[in-house]
Each structure stands twice: as structure tokens, then as C-alpha cells.
Design goal:
This protein has 399 residues and is mainly α.
Length: 399
């Protein structure tokens, strides 16, 4: 139950109290000025601001916007306030109280798109809120359909907050899980588009690489790296804990691939079920035994791989490759040419075929030595995934 310091439990009071002019850049600066009146860190002042952000984001971050309509003033203000609180605290410290950490976890997890953007872009603009397009020029739903206003986190601000959050395994899992759901929705949407355009045959060698798929591959690498960079910044001397964090990211960002029923009509529908905007921003497709089996095989295979075991960037690229095979973006024919029997006649990836040798072969086929059986644009994007990883890692690490 929220009990904010301005009185009452209504987050609307916080918005009216702190951002009375609609969540403008000037209002964000006013909030930042108020926050600067005391040192930020493990203290009551920081706790109060983290609670304000949690109250407003929990009330309005899940607003569902349909049919290309604009988001509400309340959602705009909540996004502006959340950005200012996260940026100001994170740029000042990665040491906060347990209460502040929990509230910051809820705030960041409520805005996974903003985390995705921060992992890949050069910083926020002066405008505190933005809203991605929910429909394209033809009026068709995009993968971000239903999303309302989002905050723009700065790299340093979000990095500091994520470093604080990563000190608790459950809080870290909560944020990673939220962003994983977003990345799953994006990649599954692209799979649906490709499936519809190719009658379930996957990306051919002469097809033009869709911009959305380029973005999805880049985002997978950058967001995973951002989390790895932030979490390692506070546990770099603990090899076991680094491994635990890496496993968390593999499990959540890529562990749902085996649940997707292969290429076909259902892929075009399932992306809509991956995340229900406005209802539950951490809703995921339920994991089943096959999903858990896939995750276990993938994790073990990475540990056995000669090229990926000690190279998180390559491991992340490989998880994206297996994800695209599971979704039918990479055709069964191409996958089986590299690893015989990897995809069955029903279009389902057989996770038992994943071992270290299989991953090394996949990396060689689709990244290192792509030949004329692999879409050249896909090969180039997978090759460049290492650059996206480095960018995300450095930003998460606070560099």
C-alpha cells in the first residue's frame, strides 16, 4: 500500500504535486532540483523519492493505448517523474536502502521498453516522455501496440539503479524478466510477419532483411549485455555470482523459445499473448516442461561450447540464433544443414540436439563463415551483434 509523503494514498496527488504542468522538461528539472536538497543514497530522503516513483509508475505505467490513440496526461507525468527519479538517483549512487531498491525495481520493471532503449542509444533527449508508434502507416498493429508513454532513462542513471537492484537476486530477476518479455514479444512479432510473408518457410537467402528483425537481434544482444555489465560492476570479484547472473539472463531472455510451436499460423498470434499491455507488464507465456528442458540444454551447451563458454557476447549471439530457429525465422532446412535433426518435421526445435559441438557449428555456419545457404543480411547482423553487445555492456557497466 502506497503512503506517499504528500498525504493520502492516491498517486494522482503525487503527479499534481510534483509535475503540475503536464510532465514537461521544466517539471522534470523541478523534481531534480527538489531531489538535490540532500545527498542521495541509503537514507530516508532517497526512500521517499523511490516510493514516489513506484506509486506513480504502478498507477499509470500499465496504461493500455489502442488504435493509435495518445496516452493520457497521467501516464505522461508518471513517465517524466519516473525518469527523473531513476536518473537522478542512479547518477548519484548505486547504494540505496532495501526499501528504495524494491521501489526502484518496481519502477524500472514497469518500463521495459525504456530499459531496451537505454541499452542501445546514446542517451535521452531533453524531453522526459516519448511514446512509440502502436500502429504503422497502414494502420496495422506494430509489436508495441498498446504501449503508452515511456520514460527516457539516461545510461548512467539506469546503470546505477540496475547496479543497486542487482544486489538482490529476486529484484534483479524481476527486471530482467520484464525486459525479457518485451524482447520475446518483439522477436515473436517479427517471426509472425516473416511466417505470414513466406508461408512459414522462414527467411530465404535472397530476402531483404526486415528492419524489425535487425532491431530485435541488436536488442537481444544489447539488453543482455546491459544487465551483465550492471550486475558484474558490483560482483566482479565473485566468479560464481557472475555465472549465476549470466544464467539468469539466459533463462529469462531466451528460455521461452521452445514453447513457440514452430513456424506456421500460430506464430502470428502468439506474439499478442507474450505481453498484455495495460493488464500485467510482467505477463509471460507460461513455462512448461519443454521450455525448462530447452533452457537446461541451452545452458549446458554454452558451458560445453569451445567458443561461447568464456565469451558472453558469443553466447548471447548463439542464444539468439537458437531462438530464431525455434521461431522458424531461420528455416528448418538451414538449421538442419548445420545440425542434422535439430528441427523435426513438426517444425519444433529438438533441444536434446543442443550441445557444445552443435553451438560451435551453428556459430560457424551463421556468423564466422556464412556461406550462400545463409541470408547475407542475417549473417551481417549476427556478425555485428558483438558490437551491440559491447555497447550495451559498457553502458550497463557505467562507462
Amino acid at each position: 500500500m502506497c503512503s506517499p509523503p504528500w498525504g493520502g494514498g492516491n498517486p494522482q496527488a503525487a503527479v499534481e504535486y510534483l509535475t503540475p504542468h503536464g510532465g514537461s522538461a521544466d517539471d522534470a528539472a523541478r523534481v531534480e532540483e527538489l531531489m538535490s536538497h540532500d545527498d542521495l543514497g541509503d537514507n530516508k530522503w532517497t526512500d521517499i523519492w523511490a516510493k514516489i516513483a513506484e506509486c506513480t509508475s504502478s498507477a499509470y505505467a500499465g496504461e493500455c493505448v489502442e488504435g493509435g490513440a495518445k496516452g493520457s496526461w497521467n501516464a505522461s507525468c508518471a513517465a517524466a517523474l519516473s525518469a527523473t527519479v531513476v536518473n537522478t538517483i542512479g547518477e548519484a549512487t548505486n547504494e540505496v536502502s532495501e526499501a528504495a531498491r524494491e521501489d526502484l525495481t518496481s519502477t524500472v520493471a514497469a518500463y521495459p521498453w525504456s530499459v531496451d532503449q537505454t541499452a542501445r542509444t546514446d542517451g535521452s533527449s531533453n524531453e522526459p516522455v516519448i511514446m512509440p508508434a502502436s500502429v504503422d502507416g497502414n494502420g496495422d498493429a506494430t509489436w508495441s501496440y498498446g504501449m503508452s508513454y515511456q520514460p527516457q532513462f539516461t545510461s548512467k542513471g539506469l546503470s546505477g539503479v540496475m547496479q543497486a537492484i542487482s544486489r538482490d537476486a529476486d529484484d534483479f530477476q524481476t527486471v530482467v524478466d520484464s525486459v525479457a518479455t518485451l524482447e520475446q514479444r518483439r522477436m515473436t512479432f517479427e517471426a509472425g510477419v516473416i511466417s505470414a510473408a513466406t508461408d512459414g518457410q522462414g527467411l530465404s537467402t535472397d530476402a531483404t532483411m526486415p528492419t524489425g528483425l535487425n532491431n530485435a537481434i541488436e536488442a537481444n544482444s544489447a539488453t543482455a549485455a546491459f544487465f551483465q555489465g550492471a550486475s558484474r560492476a558490483v560482483v566482479e570479484d565473485d566468479a560464481e555470482e557472475v555465472d549465476n547472473r549470466n544464467k539468469t539472463i539466459v533463462d529469462t531472455l531466451f528460455g521461452l523459445s521452445s514453447f513457440i510451436p514452430g513456424p506456421g499460423g500460430e506464430v502470428s498470434r502468439i506474439w499478442k499473448d507474450t505481453w498484455s499491455f495495460g493488464k500485467d507488464t510482467t505477463k509471460r507465456i507460461a513455462q512448461n516442461a519443454a521450455t525448462q528442458d530447452f533452457t537446461e540444454h541451452l545452458t549446458n551447451a554454452i558451458d560445453e561450447s569451445k567458443i561461447a563458454k568464456n565469451d558472453a557476447s558469443r553466447a548471447t549471439t548463439l542464444t539468439t540464433i537458437t531462438q530464431m530457429i525455434g521461431l522458424g525465422i531461420i528455416s528448418a532446412g538451414q538449421a538442419n544443414a548445420a545440425v542434422p535433426g535439430l528441427v523435426g518435421g513438426d517444425g519444433i526445435l529438438d533441444s536434446s540436439k543442443l550441445d557444445g559441438t552443435a553451438l560451435d557449428t551453428l556459430y560457424d555456419r551463421f556468423v564466422t563463415n556464412g556461406d550462400d545457404t545463409v541470408n547475407p543480411d542475417l549473417h551481417d547482423q549476427l556478425t555485428d551483434a558483438g558490437d551491440a553487445y559491447k555497447t550495451g555492456y559498457d553502458r550497463g557497466h557505467g562507462e
